[in-house]
Write a structure and sequence with these properties.
alpha/beta, 12 helices, binds S-adenosylmethionine, 296 residues, Methyltransf_25, disordered N terminus, Methyltransferase domain-containing protein, SAM-dependent_MTases_sf, Rossmann fold
Length: 296
């Protein structure tokens, strides 16, 4: 467990995380929009003069906050009708989030450091709790789910995005197949298991899990999208840490000895050849968009 915690820690506590995560957030952003739409929050706010308390756990660089502001502004809801708390365990991510709040001039957003596994937040305090692309990368996702349900009000909504298919792996596997055929091909499923526990890439497993927690109105929807992540250089920046995880966990000693220094430059060259140096890397992703309500 400790080693898995430190893996997430290593990846997301890098002081350059804002730059490193830029290409990744171009992929998570469109899914955050779908999650916010599926949550029904804009209907809840526009149907009455409500004051909603909203939480975005593992907020990263703020894709959920952006989706919420866009969706609620579009239905004419003023910021004074809702408050958003954005939490993350990584200080560099929280700094990036605070920069975004300042840049956008949002008045209804606060940021706070919190570990989703033991969040330290008040019980039954939030109408909506969003968790975008974190549950599949936790050492104890069941504890995180229990904690999330604890802090949501009765009748409140839990909203979760997780990956089925991570698109950047296609170019990694193409590099392997064409240049280093003795290295293993890596499936999204294998990669998911390196990051965390549970079967967060399996819609039936998720549905059963939420049913076991007695949640209502469970919606589990796989959604495919083609994502334009950025230039080969930007995608390479986002891939350094996950690629290191693959090398550490799925390659043997001999493979690491032979290919550790050669693989990454070959992967970048392969993307440059395929998309052009200033071209945009495009790949197919699939996520599971999950919403459910805590019973009244
Ligand atoms: C893949 S990023 C997702 C960020 C953002 N929600 C998005 O969709 O782009 C995962 C985020 O989870 C955060 N994280 C990882 N482990 C965490 C934990 N135990 N508690 C809180 N945040 C955590 C990371 O710092 C990172 O910001």
């Amino acid at each position: 467990m400790a080693s898995q915690e430190s893996r997430a820690h290593d990846i997301f506590n890098n002081p350059n995380i804002k730059t490193i995560y830029r290409a990744a957030s171009r992929t998570t952003g469109p899914y955050a929009k779908v999650l916010v739409q599926q949550s029904g929050i804009s209907k809840a706010l526009s149907s009455g003069n409500l004051q909603l308390s909203v939480l975005d756990q593992a907020c990263g660089t703020g894709v959920v906050a952006e989706a919420l502001h866009a969706e609620l502004a579009a239905v004419g809801t003023p910021e004074t009708n809702w408050h958003l708390k954005c939490t993350d365990s990584s200080q560099p991510m929280l700094d990036a989030m605070a920069d975004l709040v300042k840049e956008k001039g949002w008045q209804n957003v606060e940021t706070a450091k919190s570990d989703i596994l033991n969040n330290g937040l008040e019980s039954e305090a939030y109408d909506y709790a969003f968790q975008s692309f974190v549950f599949m990368a936790l050492p104890d996702s069941n504890a995180a789910l229990d904690e999330t349900i604890r802090i949501v009000k009765p009748g409140g909504t839990v909203a979760i995005n997780t990956w089925i298919k991570v698109g950047w792996m296609d170019d990694v596997n193409l590099t392997t197949a064409t240049q280093f055929p003795d290295l293993p091909q890596v499936t999204s499923n294998q990669f998911g298991r390196l990051m965390g526990d549970g079967e967060w890439d399996n819609p039936s497993w998720i549905e059963n899990k939420l049913r076991d927690k007695n949640l209502n109105n469970i919606q589990v929807n796989p959604v495919s999208m083609t994502s334009a992540m950025g230039t080969p250089e930007e995608v390479a920046e986002s891939s350094v840490f996950p690629m290191k995880l693959i090398m550490d966990k799925l390659w043997n000693d001999e493979q690491r000895e032979k290919y550790s220094t050669r693989f990454f430059p070959a992967y970048v060259d392969q993307m440059i050849n395929k998309y052009g140096k200033d071209g945009i890397v495009s790949s197919d992703w699939e996520a599971i968009v999950v919403t459910a309500q805590k019973p009244l």
